[in-house]
Amino acid sequence: MKGSEALLEALRDRGVEVVFGYPGGAIMPLYDALLGCGIRHVLVRHEQAAAFAADGYARVSGRPGVCIATSGPGATNLVTGIANAFLDSVPMVAITGQVSTPLMGTDAFQEVDIFGITLPIVKHSYVVRHIEELPRIVHEAWDIAASGRPGPVLIDLPKNMAAGEAHGAARVHEPRPPPARAEEALLARAAAMIAAAERPVLYAGGGIGIGRAVQAFRDFVAESGIPVVSTLKGLGSVPTDEALFLGMMGMHGTRAANTAVQSSDLLVVVGARFDDRATGKLDGFAPDARVIHLDIDPAEIGKLRRADLALAGDLSHSLAALAGLAQRPRIAAWRRHCLRLKAEHAFRYDAPGEGVYAPELLRRLSVAADGEATLTCDVGQHQMWVAQHCLIRRPERHLSSGGLGAMGYGLPAAIGAQLADPTRTAIAVSGDGSIMINIQELATLKRYGLPVKVLLIDNQSLGMVRQWQELFFERRFSEVDLSDNPDFAEVARSFGIDALTIDSRGQVDEAVDALLHHQGPLLVHCRIDPAANVWPLVPPGHTNATMLEESLQ
Amino acid sequence: MNRTIEVGLTHAEGAIVRTLGLIERRGFVVNAVETLQDPHGGPLLLRVEVGSRGRPFDVLVRQILRLFDVRHALLVEPQAGQRLVC
C-alpha cells in the first residue's frame, strides 16, 4: 500500500466523508489516490477557502474538518485558515504536500517550511519521515485535533512519503485520555459561592458549544435562574430570545449585559477566556466580582483574570454537578433589575428613512428562519449586527471568526456548513469588503450546486475601519472608500449564481423570502447607508461601563 | 524576574523549537537554555531560564503542558547563585 493510500484509509477509518482542497505538484500522489477512494473531495478555488470550509464543516458537525493543499504557496495559503481554527478552538486536520525528503532544506521548487511557519498556530504538527508511521500519525492527529480543547493539527507530507510503498507494521497510536473532571470538593465550594451570591452573572463562552455542553449549560441556567451574558462565540448557548439572556457583552455588547457584569458580585465564567473584546479594559472589568472559572483548558485559568475558584475539566460534567449541588440563589431582586435593564435598553428598529436598516433586515431574516438557519459571518460591522440582532438558537448555527477576525471567512465557512448539514440553509452574511477576499468561492457554489445563500450588506466602504476613523481618528478617512465596487449581482450572475439587489425598506420582505426559499445558491446584494455605524460601542482602552450610544454622537 | 522551568520532552521533530517558541510568544524572555539527554532513553530534559515582566509563570507552565510532546513541566525552586549555561 502506498503512503497516500494509507493516509486516506486512516481518514476513512475515522469516518471522513468530505475533504476540502486544491491540488498541486507535491501533493499529486495523494490526489491520485483520492480517485475512487470513497472520500468526497470538494475543490475550492483558493486554499484559504479550503481551510475555512473545513472549519465551517467542523463547527457544524462537531468533528474535525480536513483540508488539503500542495507545498509552498498552497501550504502558505492555508495559514490564515489554520490560525482561525487555532484561535477559535476548531478541530481540523490540515494536510500539506511537501517536496521529497532528499530535497527538503535545499530551497527546492515550491518548498517552504510549513511545519516551522505554523508552529505557533497549531495544536500539534508532523513531518512524515517514515511511510509506515502514516496511519499512526493520522489517527493521532485526529485525536489531538478533537480532544480536550480542540484545534488544528498539521500533517506535512513529503512527496516520496505519499508515493512510496509502506513496508512493515505501523506503530499503533495511543488513544487520548478522557477529559479531566473537576474535583468534587471544588465543585462543592463553587456551589456554596453560587448559593451565597447576591448579584451573580453567567458568562457564556465559545467552549460551551465546542465542548457540546449546551444542554448541560441550559439545565444549569434553568436550575439556578441566574442571568446570562455571552461572548461572540458563546451566542446560542441559550437561545438569544431566552428571558434570562441579557445579550452579548463587550465592545459591541448590550448595555444590559455590560452593566450587569460590571455590577455583579459573582461571575460564573463557562468556557470563555476573558478576551479583550469581551472584557474591555481588563483592570476595570467586573471590579467587585469574584470569579468561578470553568474550562476544559487549565492554561486559560488565571491567564488574564485571577479565578477565585477554578474548575478545570469537562464542562458538561462540571455544570451537571453544579446543577445538582447548588441551591438556587435568592436573587429575585437582582434578576428583576437585570430584566429591567434589558427592557430599558432593548434595541430599537424604528430607524428613520426609507433605506434598508441592516439590523432590522438581519433580525427579520433570522426570526423568519426561526433561528434554524446556519448563519456564517465575515468580519466587520455586519458581523456585529448579526451578533446583536439575530435570533440564534444554538452555537453551531452562528459561525463567526471570533479570535482571528478573518475577513473572507463567511462564504467558505457556509460551504462547509452546508455540506456538514445539507438539511439546513446556510446563509453567509458578508460585507462589500469581506466578500472580495474569497469571492472566487461563488464558483464552488455553482460547481456543486450548493444552495448557500449570500446576504451581502454593501456600504461601499470598509465600514468598521471607517467607523473607527470617524470616532477615534478625527474623521481622517484613510483607504476605506470602496465606492468603486463592482456590481455584485452581475458578478454573481457571471459565476452562474442567481442574484438580486435591494436598496429600500420595501424590498426587505422579498429579500428575506428569497434567502429562505430560493432553490439553489443566491446572492442578495443589499445597499445600505454608508454612514451607518454599529452601536453601542465601548471605546478602546475603556471599561465596559463606558458605552457610547448613537444619540450621543 | 527570572525563574527556571524544567520540561521533559519526547524525542520528536520540533519539540524543542515548539517549546521555546511558545515561551517567547507568550511574552517571556528566554535567557538561557540547557538540554540533557536521559541515558536510559527517557524524555529529553530541557531547562530554560525564563524572564518575565509580570506575567505569571504558573500560567506559562500550564501552557507548556498543553504541548503534545511535553511529558512534564515544572518550575524549579530558585537556588541562590545557580544559573544555566548558555
Average pLDDT of chain B works out at 90
Number of helices of chain B: 2
At the fourth CATH level, what is the homologous superfamily of the largest domain in chain A?
Thiamin diphosphate (ThDP)-binding fold, Pyr/PP domains
Q: Which sheet architecture does the biggest sheet of chain A show?
A: 6 strands, parallel
Ends distance of chain A: 68 Å
From the helix content, strand content and strand pairing of chain B, which structural class follows?
A: alpha+beta
In the CATH classification, which architecture of the largest domain in chain A applies? 3-Layer(aba) Sandwich
Number of strands of chain B: 4
Strand order of the largest sheet of chain A: 2-1-3-4-6-5
Shape of chain A: globular
What is the name of the CATH topology of chain B?
Answer: Alpha-Beta Plaits
Biggest interface between protein chains, with counts per chain?
Answer: A-B, 18 and 17 residues
Can you describe what's shown?
The complex is a heterodimer of chains A (553) and B (86). With 553 residues, chain A is an alpha/beta fold. Chain A has three domains: 3-163, Rossmann fold; 184-344, TPP-binding domain (Rossmann fold, 3-Layer(aba) Sandwich); 358-552, Thiamin diphosphate (ThDP)-binding fold, Pyr/PP domains (Rossmann fold), CATH 3.40.50.970. Helix content of chain A is 36%, strand content 16%. In chain A, the strands form three sheets. Chain A has a six-stranded parallel β-sheet, with helices on both faces. In chain A, strand 3, helix 4 and strand 4 form a beta-alpha-beta unit. Chain A is globular, with a radius of gyration of 24 Å. The mean pLDDT of chain A is 96. Chain B has 86 residues and is α+β, with helices and mostly antiparallel strands. Chain B has a single domain, classed as Alpha-Beta Plaits (2-Layer Sandwich), CATH 3.30.70. Chain B is built from two helices and four strands; from the N terminus they run E-H-E-E-H-E. Chain B has helices at 15-25, 57-65; strands at 2-9, 29-36, 44-51, 70-76. The chains are: A alpha/beta (553), B alpha+beta (86). Chains A and B meet through strand 5 of A and helix 1 and helix 2 of B.
